[in-house]
Description:
Shape: elongated
Strand content: 15-25%
Number of strands: 10
Radius of gyration: 55 Å
Order of helices and strands: HEEHHEEEEHEEHHEE
Distance between the termini: 162 Å
Number of helices: 6
Helix content: 25-40%
Amino acid sequence: MRANTVIMIVLAGVFGVLAVVLANVWLANQRSAMAKAGDLPRDTIVVAAVPLKFGDSLSDDKLREIPWPAGAVPDGAFKTTKDLLAGEGAKQALQAIGVNEPVLATKITGPGQRATLSAVLAEGMKAVSIRVNDVLGVAGFVFPGDRVDVLLTRSVHSNDGPDKSFVDVLLQSVKVLAVDQVADESKDSPTVVKAVTVEVSTKDAQKLTLAAGAGQLSLALRQAAASKGETTERVTLADLTGETPEDVAKRQAELERQKAAEAAAAEERKRADDKLNGLAQAVERVGSQIDQLSKAKPAPTVAPAPQPQEVVKEVVKYVQPAPPARATIRVFRGVKLEAYDVPRQR
């Protein structure tokens, strides 16, 4: 057997023994901690025995008491079911409560109260509804309990140039109370809604009411754990294309000139078409008149009597032209042709 193999076997055995020792030590510590925890004073707390949703009435069969460390009881918890159901009238759940989840005073209504939106509002807060659609409402993925940012898009008329459009973040980390008329936070299926109700302060409620008439409101869904605000700035058309307002004005002016030129060309084509239509109608009228004339029978014509004509006789006389006074004589002298102009003898 090789030395490397022996060394590996020895190391494996050592690590195995060490792991067993460490596991025994950990288990001993856990048993000691559990023994100490058992010595702590105990109390009881009321938890949900069945899943509860928004609007469910509370009763003995939906609640139960379980042991709880006395020093770790949550604020607003009830020690006994009798204490929770005390008072005249039934209490209802204001939000979804899971099995074995402590039932707190902030999660239920008072005696005889209904689970309405007013019972969900925090102290000093107001509920305001925002009109949205399938796009402005984040495609229906906003549910009660979510946090959203409210964006305002508007256009301002400018006397110096074209209208200026921009987007501002109006409010940040606003809690959604209800979508349409549903305030149940256990709702998990996305649906397209027409209105979203949010929880805001009185001043923010005034801002939302004023912004609804000044421009278009839209929602931006925030991360579930992101509740802090962030630094924002106004976004304009120049931020989309990198152009200055002067560039945007020039482009819009050019588009308007092109639009005017197209309108003038369309008007010219219309006038030409009207002229062609008028000529076609005139040709059609002339053709119909020709057809009517061709169908009419012509009146019989009487040939006029022959008139006597004077006969004129022409006399042709041939005159012999006078012979020329001179004549040209050509004579070969060897190979050379010579011409002589001599008078003609009579």
